[in-house]
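User: Fold this; tokens only.

Assistant: Input:
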Amino acid sequence: MKIVFATNNKNKIREIQSMLPGSIEIISLESIGCHEDIPETADTIEENAIMKANYVTQKYGYDCFADDTGLEVDALNGEPGVFSARYAGEQKSSEDNMDKLLLNLKVKTNRDAQFKTVIALNIKGEQYLFTGIARGAITIEKTGNQGFGYDPIFRPVGYQETFAELSLETKNTISHRGKATHELIAFLNNNPS
């Protein structure tokens, strides 16, 4: 089975392709000739995932899936949430985003947070949603050089390391994206084309 993953983020493609069985091959947006930035203007993570999947299906005619992820920090009333990628501005700099978050948490004692991923799958004229959540806490400083985004400042529950210090294999078993992707894979395996 070949399916389009509606993202230009090569890190996400690599992470998800590594979790998929050999029978499922991801097709990139680049491969279908989609070079534009797909709008992500919704108010929720769910709506953004749906918006991206629908864009590819409607404009290019492919079955596809799209994800959206947000980091929700308890002490900041769920910020940055749906604005996680552009928390510190439209330049979408991970370093700037982490710096802003650490600054906003400087005087907070509660550092509990969660990553939430929603995957919207459009297949055979139907739409399905899969959600994964990883609870954890925001660290005081950045550590580790694996992963991407907020990984260097997110320590998942039950671990002393941040996501950026864990191997890709370990991260994929416990992460928000990993959990949502495992739901997606189970669905695809039980509903072959």
